[in-house]
TrEMBL record:
Keywords: Oxidoreductase, Signal. It is an enzyme of class 1 (oxidoreductase). The keyword Oxidoreductase applies. SUPFAM superfamilies: Thioredoxin-like (SSF52833). Pfam families: Thioredoxin_7. This is Disulfide bond reductase DsbH. InterPro entries: Thioredoxin-like_sf. Residues 1-19 form the signal peptide. It comes from the Bacteria. It comes from Chryseobacterium aquaeductus.
Length: 146
């Protein structure tokens, strides 16, 4: 019985030890697919510019095409205030780690274009002034330069 319990615990531990965060998975995918990563810090239920960014850029066909064309991996580090919108504990922890590393000033929205190794290529503080197509084309130009 002890051996079965030990084997079960070892199997569970190895699954959790090898679990990747969304950002680590994005880096892996970006490396394999030769893509860039867009990391966006948002407050989805309280930050008006964040809500506009998602509605007017992130949710558009022009932006979504960046993913389907294998140009971009998108990661959203969301910090909602409402209890009903809270992410899982694992996502909260990952978002906090990402904020410590990439957004120590706590800016919202804050959007960062990274290469597959996590090196910062460009940042946008606040709501980008471009339309969705211009924003997407700027990302495409970074992709073509690499």
């Amino acid at each position: 019985m002890k051996k079965i319990f030990a084997a079960t615990m070892l199997a569970l531990f190895s699954v959790f030890a090898n679990a990747q965060t969304r950002f680590e998975q994005a880096k892996k995918n970006a490396s394999e697919q030769n893509e860039l990563i867009l990391l966006n810090f948002s407050g989805s239920d309280w930050c008006i510019p964040c809500i506009k960014l998602h509605k007017n850029i992130i949710e558009t066909d022009a932006f979504k095409k960046l993913s389907t064309d294998h140009i971009l991996e998108y990661v959203n580090a969301d910090f909602p205030r409402s209890k009903k919108n809270q992410p899982s504990a694992e996502i909260k922890k990952e978002n906090a780690v990402l904020a410590d590393r990439y957004n120590p000033k706590g800016l919202f929205p804050y959007t960062i274009l990274l290469n597959s190794e996590g090196k910062v290529l460009k940042t946008w503080e606040g709501l980008p002034s471009q339309e969705a197509l211009a924003f997407s084309n700027e990302i495409r130009s970074f992709y073509q330069k690499k």
